[in-house]
Amino acid sequence: MCGIVGLWDTKRQWALEFLQTFIVKVSNALSHRGPDDCGMWSDEASGIVLAHRRLAVLDLSPSGHQPMRSASGRYIIIYNGEIYNFLDYRGEFPFLKGKSDTEVLLEACEAWGPVEACRRFRGMFAFALWDTFDRVLFLARDRVGEKPLYWGKVGTMIVFTSELKALHHCPGWKGTLCQKALSSYLQLGYVIDPLAIYEGFQKIVPGTVLEISSKGTETVHCFWDHHTLVRNSVLSTDSTQEALEKLEDLLLDNVERRMICDVSVGAFLSGGIDSGLVTAMMQHLQKKRAGDAVRSFSIGFDVRAYNEASNAEAVACHIGTQHKTIYMTGRDALDVLSQAYWDEPFSDSSQLATAFLCKQAKNHQVTVCLSGDGGDESFAGYTRYLATEVLLTRLNKIPLWLRKMVSVIGMHTPWICHRYGRIRKAIQVLPINDLLELYKEICTQYPVHGVWKSHLLGVPFPEDRLWHSVASMQYWDILTYLPGDILTKVDRASMAYSLEVRTPFLDKTVIEYGWTLPMHHRIYKGQPKYLLRKLASKWIPKFVAQDKKMGFGVPLAHWLRKDLRSWMESLLTPQSLESAGFNAKAIQNFWKLHLKRKADYSNRLWNTAMFLYWNKSKEKI
């Protein structure tokens, strides 16, 4: 995996030497994403400079060096990602010199055009492509947003990068916070795509290529439209057995493709079925090659309610991996916090565990790990899908006027609001009649009234509804929660330690297949992810395959009262809270109630603290 950065001084107001100096600073800020090599290319006549930091995974030789120029000399590319079907097309370009997927991608962009190349390739990627003939810039991002790519304008310059923090060195940088993005963070815990935390910047929309001409014209080309995909999907009439065989073949193919690399490969093995299935298939394929056992890694906690280590170890023993369980404490969380800087404010506390696990895997000389991310969205694994559907049905049986009255009374009853989190959430959703509005409220993790002094803007969720309520929620998650939270967490945590994470469930073929499944293959008799569980029962212990979904979380409430207490109190001072825009009195009251165990405000407090920590850390860059 890699880091990319570039700028285009369209009016050529700055000297090339100055721009190159700036790019070197930015590139150095991305060194953790690519410690193995670095390169820069520039064209003074056009005012463009491109830089690349390389984490060598395929073709470790200098032939994989970037920026890379096409054989004709017309195109220059800087690329972050992996193309898993590049070998299928390599034969079409017999003149290639190296063995990397970068070279295949580059020549394909010239032969077919960047939009068609993105359409044909399967993988995770973000790249910038410069046409030296027509002076046109292309910025592309993969289908679901596995790899980040930010872009924006600073003065007359167009700038783009893998990480926003790198642009703090940019001349003319203002760093004005985007209120829409800030509202998204405060309510969801992450900045929803395509927003970015700074005004004037945004993320490239997943599944698109942005074309910018020398005249300043901006054209967005879509090569993957999830709405069209879902609308055009035809539900399968296959029997359960036929569906299982197709899914098994599909996953085996995608796991095998993601094991192709020239460095050591491992697996993240939680106690869930997705990572268990991926790891079991890796071990099966490794045995066929007569290779060494797969190295698998899991994380454990001393707090029993959060500890899935025993399930992970049972899977590892069953399939025969070389397994390592690493236990994490609150002190380890402090170490992660001291080393990490989140590119944008981010308050999914499982980021701590993900980063710690990535660090440990890297310390064990593993450079690539496969994970089970993405299975819940495509195969309806979240328990909230069924719970939301049932809740809406029950709510509609109660008169609206009565629900509104109970909600108003309940929200003005302090002992309910402070002590009973689930009851508080239920009271908040009582007046809602619409599925999307209900789901937005459930996904809004931090809606405590009176915490933020300014008015919060609405979160821009997609408005489309599908043929079934569960399908609609899957669709909304794939467009919002998956790229904004899950994939952002994995990219930042893994890249902080120069580790590449690959996800078989996020291949286009798997996602497309998921949308053809009828609802009884997604949820059956109240059991989510039914088809995947059936398949997992063949590969991993049945008690794990049929176990209730636990979710990947950390004992945050416990840590805040123990090892993280001093760290939290250093942030939650009245001055820092008020200056950042929080209601200091309200936040400190939540903190007191949490410490006395009268309420669990860990998520609200963490959301607040992570914004303060991000705001403080960015000043040091």
TrEMBL record:
Pfam annotation, one family: GATase_6
The answer to keyword Coiled coil applying to this record is no
Pinpoint the site Important for beta-aspartyl-AMP intermediate formation. Answer: 373
Annotated Glutamine amidotransferase type-2 domain ranges read: 2-215
What Enzyme Commission number(s) appear in the record? 6.3.5.4
InterPro entries, A to Z? Asn_synth_AEB (IPR006426), Asn_synthase (IPR001962), ASN_synthetase/amidase (IPR051786), AsnB_N (IPR033738), GATase_2_dom (IPR017932), Ntn_hydrolases_N (IPR029055), Rossmann-like_a/b/a_fold (IPR014729)
Source organism (scientific name): Holospora undulata HU1
- Recorded GO MF terms: asparagine synthase (glutamine-hydrolyzing) activity; ATP binding
Reaction(s) catalysed by this chain, per the record, are: L-aspartate + L-glutamine + ATP + H2O = L-asparagine + L-glutamate + AMP + diphosphate + H(+)
PROSITE patterns reported for this sequence = GATASE_TYPE_2 (PS51278)
Gene Ontology cellular-component terms listed = cytosol
- This chain belongs to the protein called asparagine synthase (glutamine-hydrolyzing)
